[in-house]
Structures are given as structure tokens and as C-alpha cells.
Specification:
Layout lengths: L1 H26 L4 H4 L14 E6 L9 E8 L10 E6 L2 E6 L5 E5 L5 E6 L9 E3 L4 H56 L1
Antiparallel strand pairs: 1-2, 2-5, 3-4, 3-6, 6-7
């Protein structure tokens, strides 16, 4: 009996985990790299990591100049000739850092993901501009909340209108019945 309960629990746990994963990645559109960013490949253990910083973090206008700075996590020194990858909607451009560990590109006006790599270093952190996807999540959740509230208001108002219409129809039918009854009584008196 205990094995059956454990198997049922595991099945429900797996099903709920899968549903939660689908909701997070597909409905809320949160990228996997943001969810699992804490996981590093085992092959890079012991290697210094590339640290990517972007300025400005929240660019305001398209074509604003973005500065990417790549440093060594151990020494905090700039890393020259690091390959910087800039991605937007499947479009990818590759830049290389200068002697100051910097690369530059114009902001595309949309969410842009930036990473860096270089032989002898572990993978860099992943940076998205404008800032991390928490803004996306909040936007999606607020849209979802607005949709639910709007749906409930419309459903409530529709039900109220339906009941009001039914009451009016019932009153009209009652008045018609009374008028017909009075007419019959009046004809019967004649």
C-alpha cells in the first residue's frame, strides 16, 4: 500500500512539475537561461568565469550606444579578445572586446541577450537588456490579472442584464395576463 501511495505521489509531482514548467516557459515566456542560470557546466569547474556587465542597463531609445564590459571573475581585470554574442529574436552578431575588455553596439530597441566566451574561461553570465526578465513576468502577470478581472466583470454584468431582462419580460407577461383577465371580466359583465 505504501509503494502505491509513493508511486501516486511521484506521478502527481511529475505531472504538476511538468504543468508548472509549461506555464513558466510557454505561457509566461520566461527563458530557460534565466530559470536555470545558476547551473554551470561541470567541464568549467576550476576555470575563472567571464563576467559581463552592460551599460546602460535600461536603454531608452533605439540606436543608443551600449557598452559591454567583460572581466575575469578571479582578478577583476578586463579580458581582451573575448567573443561577445548579442542576440535579438534569433538574429546574432559577434563582437570582440578591446584591450579594456569592452565591446560596443547600438541598442536594437527590443530585448537583447548578451553573453561572452573565451578559451580558458568558464561561460559568462547571461545579461538581458532592458534588465532581467522580471519585467516581462510582471507585465505578463498584470495582463493575465487584467484579463481575469475583465472577464469576471463582463460575466457578472451579463448575468445581471440577463436577470433584469427576465424580470422585465416576466412583468410584461404579468401585466398582459392582468389586462387579458380584466378584458375577459369586462366582456363577461356585458
Amino acid at each position: 500500500m505504501q509503494k502505491k501511495n509513493l508511486a501516486s505521489f511521484l506521478l502527481v509531482f511529475i505531472a504538476l512539475s511538468f504543468i508548472l514548467f509549461i506555464v513558466i516557459t510557454q505561457i509566461l515566456a520566461i527563458p530557460l537561461w534565466w530559470i536555470f542560470g545558476f547551473i554551470h557546466p561541470l567541464s568549467s569547474i576550476g576555470l575563472p568565469t567571464l563576467v559581463v556587465k552592460v551599460s546602460p542597463e535600461n536603454p531608452l531609445i533605439p540606436n543608443e550606444n551600449i557598452t559591454v564590459t567583460v572581466t575575469n571573475s578571479s582578478s577583476q581585470l578586463p579580458v581582451e579578445d573575448a567573443e561577445v554574442t548579442v542576440q535579438k529574436d534569433g538574429t546574432e552578431i559577434t563582437l570582440y572586446t578591446d584591450s579594456n575588455g569592452q565591446a560596443f553596439f547600438p541598442y536594437f530597441g527590443e530585448v537583447t541577450v548578451i553573453t561572452a566566451q573565451k578559451s580558458g574561461f568558464a561561460s559568462s553570465n547571461i545579461v538581458a537588456i532592458p534588465t532581467e526578465p522580471i519585467g516581462w513576468v510582471l507585465g505578463v502577470l498584470s495582463s493575465l490579472g487584467t484579463g481575469i478581472v475583465s472577464g469576471l466583470v463582463v460575466a457578472f454584468a451579463s448575468e445581471k442584464l440577463r436577470k433584469r431582462k427576465a424580470r422585465i419580460t416576466k412583468k410584461k407577461a404579468s401585466r398582459k395576463f392582468i389586462e387579458d383577465s380584466e378584458n375577459l371580466v369586462a366582456k363577461a359583465k356585458i
